[in-house]
Amino acid sequence: MTNSIAELEGADVLLVTGSNTTETHPQIGRNIITAVDHGAKLIVIDPRKTDIAKEAHIHLALRPGTDIALINAMMRIILDENLADDLFISMRTENFIALRDYLHRLDLDELATITGINRTTIHEAACLYARSSKSVICYCLGVTQHTCGTDNVQAVANLAMLTGNVEKKHSGVDPLRGQNNVQGACDMAALPAVLSGYQNLADIDVRNRFLAVWGREVPKAPGLSLTEMTHAGINGTIKAMFIMGENPVLSDPHLNRVENTLKHLPFLAVSDIFLTETAKLAHVVFPAASFAEKSGTVTNSERRVQLCHQAIPPIRNCKPDSEIIMQLGRRLNCPGMDFDTEAEIMEEISLLTPIYGGMHYDRLAKNWGLQWPCWNRDHPGTKFLHKYYFARGKGCFTITEHQEPYENPEKKYPFTLVTGRGSYHHYHTATMTRKSRRLLREYPEALLEINKEDSDKLNLRDGETVELASRRGTVHIKTKITDRVQPGTVFSSFHFFEVPINLLTLDAMDPKSKCPELKICSVNLRKVKHD
Amino acid sequence: MPDIMTICNYCGCGCGVYLRVEQNRVVGSYPSKNHPISRGNLCSKGWHLHEFIHSAERLTEPLLRKDGELRPVSWDEALDYTASALTETKEKFGTNAIGVLASAKCTNEENYLLQKLTRIGLGTNNIDHCARL
Amino acid sequence: MIDLKELILSKDNLIPLLRKLKKDARLIAPIKNEYGDTLFSEIDDIDAMKIDLHNQPQASLKPFFLPQQETLAGYTVNNGEYSFTPPDKAQDTIFFGVRSCDLTALLYMDLIFSKPSKDATYYDRRNHSLIITLGCNQPFANCFCEATGSGPYLEYGYGLQFIDLGDRYFVSAGRGKGADLLKKWAYFFREVNEEDQKKRYQLFLEARGQFTRNIQVAHACQKLQEEAVPEEIWETLSRRCYDCGGCAYVCPTCTCYSIDDMAQGTNHGIRVRSWDACTSSGFTRMAGGHNPTDRSRYALKRRFLHKLKHDYAHHGKPSCTGCGRCVDICFGGVDITTFIDLLTTQKTT
Questions:
Q1: Rounded to whole angstroms, how far apart are CA atoms B61 and B79?
Q2: How many CA atoms does the CB half-sphere of C78 hold within 13 Å?
Q3: Which of A325, A364, A472, C149 has the most CB atoms within 10 Å of its CB?
Q4: Which listed CATH number (2.20.25.90, 3.30.1050.10, 3.90.1150.10, 2.30.40.10) goes with B4-52?
Q5: What is the pTM of this model?
Q6: Distance (Å, rounded) from C-alpha A332 to C-alpha A326?
Q7: Which of B7, B33, B35, B55 to mutate to probe the C interface, most C CBs <10 Å?
Q8: Of the given ranges (A435-439, A478-482, C296-300), which has the lowest mean pLDDT?
Q9: Hey, is C211 helix, strand or coil?
């Protein structure tokens, strides 16, 4: 997020796109609801009528995968209505003329048809967003999990820059990060093409700095992304894997391919707290300590690095992952694998990572941590990003064009399947939430949301099991008839191993972010006949 | 024993949660009122955060596949086996034949250590995690 | 002979008195911790820990009497023979700095856990407890105990009640343990004079006028006895209930719980009682899948009606004690005060 979570309450207009905020980020949802109760206007872009969409003043229920067309239409309207922030555009951005000319060539009626939303509603939303100087955009995986995910994000950024709704308090573009430390894992460079703090892997000064501290040269060639590794197949280049605390056999798209790859690996080691579907395929499984049994820091969605304190010693024969990694590292003769405390590891992180430069344990212990960038010991941390300058200097407008999803409904597969986190009570592959009796009780099994119009056509009753099939696989799943989804669209989650919904999903991905198109694939459903 | 402050292990909001500990068991979780995110309340997952910690299904011993089955072994055996399997892969297929997945559920320190091990211990940039899922 | 029902304690003598009390029992008081949260905590070192009597303790006494999760029994099976281990016995505990609303809530829980028979673990803890309350001269931001008849000062129920008169406390003793305590430590106290009485009365009147929120609890209770709640009110509230359960968990009088048997190995397990909430759909769902409560419309109906309608009918008092803890923490902004406001501002047709 470029803003802090608390700032959302002070916004005048909130545009939430591709985020089921009240279920997946409850506390951020709370800020948005409070803002609404204090008089802010809420625009929600989502094909589903989620709980947050029910609170919206304008709900833009677009056809899945048409975000760019919608945002381009909004920008065109903003230009036509003279609502663009000319001063901001001239001072802080570049390449505006190209975008303007492109937008002027577009036909608004055509764009509206693509999105399935009428022109008047788009017009209303565009003006509402542009007329406020405290407009904030929150987006989540509904924007990024598309083959055009990077362009979707660029379109959102264009919209914000066009109206000058960046660089200040209560206004900006805020990606909501999913897992408790997905931000931190990225910051720490658990990524194939950067070094910690998003430093350039090819930069000679950066490389020398790491060489000096690590005592060994970092490999030059960027590595493979998650899907490239897990989808390599039987004869892929990857021959051995170490997986720490992840469950790709349930979470990744096109599961048959993932399972096929991992099953045939000559060597797979997994470190986890439970025997996950992935761990079951491993040659070696390490029993890891849970979050309550270790200390360390995690970084939340607003870039806040916070301390977690150990509550109990590791149970039975478990060890924290840091201990497992260091013991393995020493056996592999890896230098610098002999830290005594987490604080000592953080000292090395701050030494090598400019944005974490001032993150020291004694400081993190006070004031609920620090938000990066925090350049040095005296730096107070950063509540909102892009103040005075964008990371790359001036903000660059980039033209984005609508492209159809990889798969569109057709005769054999007439429905669009949207996937996501489907329940407030479960998290991701539910490795942890299913072990909680209360959470499991509240949402005990996988459900497929389907509109009444469709269920009537198929002669389905609520709770009836259907066979759901895509070109890649088939699952059996119970239906839930609801007006949350539009006719022609069905929705489910990937929480339950009994219904591995990712058997169906696509591994077509965004060429730049490598983010798979988990939000859209074409499926067919058929009543299951009972004997 | 006073309750221990930690950060919720579920979503990216990052609530401040107290864990209530009795005789080395975590028996409760409740929000911090003063914490800027939790502000006195948690979602349903947060209020039940302690419930999976002492699940009988927790992994408690290192496991090694022998004759097709995962069997409990000592830490040394599991780690030695892993180290030699990784070394062998490196020698036979090159460093880029090894892939590593880190975790958005683990700490910064653990992710940092794992990418360091991957980059200079195993000699590859093949490291990623589920950021896009 | 001085009257042992009402005495004056100089503030200088508070710590010396508490130090003595701590010798015979566990002492629990509101402590402001390093994170700025004020929580009821056990006092190990009375000189090092800062007792905070200026902020409302974040949680009520509920977790001490009905813990979030407690082991009711352990069981082991050997050759088909079951053996049980009882839970740990309660320790003598003195709670200091308890506000009127929280004691009122405890008195309500006494009632709940006394029928049909006395709940063993609850009453074990309760019988080993002594409550020293502190009357509220200045209500906290979200409080409305005056409207629920549970404050700012109390008439009964306490072991001792302290009222802050500035440089001294006006101390009243309840029956039993409280009076014994005063007798035992009489040398810390002096007699009450007329000025003390006047000042106490004056502060009481002032406190009653200091509430920032005007919540029409009595009106709401009355109205609920007479007529049904309009459907649109339930629907408005349900749409905004995001099912966190927080209101029930922080509530000092919400006593819903569930009991689970949890295996701890092949021949050993524990029976655990943990907090539950009537607002969640799994609470009312029956084994066959039918659910008598439609969450999409009536998520909060059971909770609000229990507090304001049924308990009012049974006990003549609502079981909301106006502590205000559920106010401002609701993810959808639909706490009990929202309900009361909606109900009482509704025009009667």
A1: 12
A2: 3
A3: A325
A4: 2.20.25.90
A5: 0.94
A6: 10
A7: B33
A8: A435-439
A9: coil
